[in-house]
Known about the structure:
This protein has 307 residues and is an alpha/beta fold. It folds into 2 domains: 4-111 and 206-302, Spore Coat Polysaccharide Biosynthesis Protein SpsA, Chain A (Alpha-Beta Complex); 163-193, no CATH class. The chain has 11 helices and 12 strands. The strands form 4 sheets. It has a 5-stranded mixed beta sheet, sandwiched between helices. The chain has a 3-stranded mixed beta sheet with strand order 5-12-11, with no helix packed on it. It is globular. The model has no long low-confidence stretch (mean pLDDT 93).
Amino acid sequence: xxxxxxxxIYNHQYNKNIEILEQxxxxxxxxxxHLVPFYTGEKKNVIPVYECSxxxxxxxxxxxxxxxxxxxxxxxxxxxxxxxxxxINEINYTQHLKLNPETSFLPEIIGLHQRKDFWTHVxxxxxxxxxxxxxxxxxxxxxxxxxxxxxxxxxxxxxxxKYLHIFKQKEFPGLSKIxxxxxxxxxxxxxxxxKNREFHLSYPLVSAYSDIFVISAESIKKFSxxxxxxxxxxxxxxxxxxxxxxxxxSEIVTEKDLKLQxxxxxxxxxxxxxxxYEERLNLLLNYFPENHLYFHPIKLSKWNTEL
Length: 307
């Protein structure tokens, strides 16, 4: 048995993608599982999960007993719309990701106070309450001071948030010029009055792009547990996954430590890098850029998936 398992996470029930992804990865990974919402089919390696996609860290927890084996050294999670560089397989993944048996991987770790632009999930993290009614979760996490020590071990600071982290700059569509000017003036005045105000998190939290992560055997049980706690208390996944990893890991590698760099595509201009592949999956896999760790998102429903 190989020492790594590939676990593919589906935000939605795209059952048609299961066989396509099996074809992509079957010659590279001997052990493959799929975490699929509300799956009712017969495939043995597809695990049904029941959680909102905004909290898909809960998939990790719900599927744990199905994909966990003592023999595995690492648990390699990827989104179903993320295409991993074809050069990476179960034999060489540790070299490409610079992993040892105690090391986990996440593309990045960003303090919430470090975010330059308004991100609605910073607001969610600020408002997050572990004491959610009906959920007895508080004692399932390390207490604040212990968590802070774990963050400090990785050189991570938890600083207060600023006004613009919590309150988005106002837009005033549809108003007359006079009303728009008045509204803008009032908003600027509130901003000035609150420019030195500090907003403190109730618990140490960080953020990260979380459509690919690799968890060591040493960390997987605690990581899975914390993911479940954060899912049950409705913390957004791109805060929950990195925070769970910091709380559970002894060593973490990020993309800044690697030669291969991931390519996340969000704008029309960024997507132009895919034009040369003509939405043909075989071309993407055969001519994948050597310097990229992955492309995301690749919506397979829009591609010719004949291999």
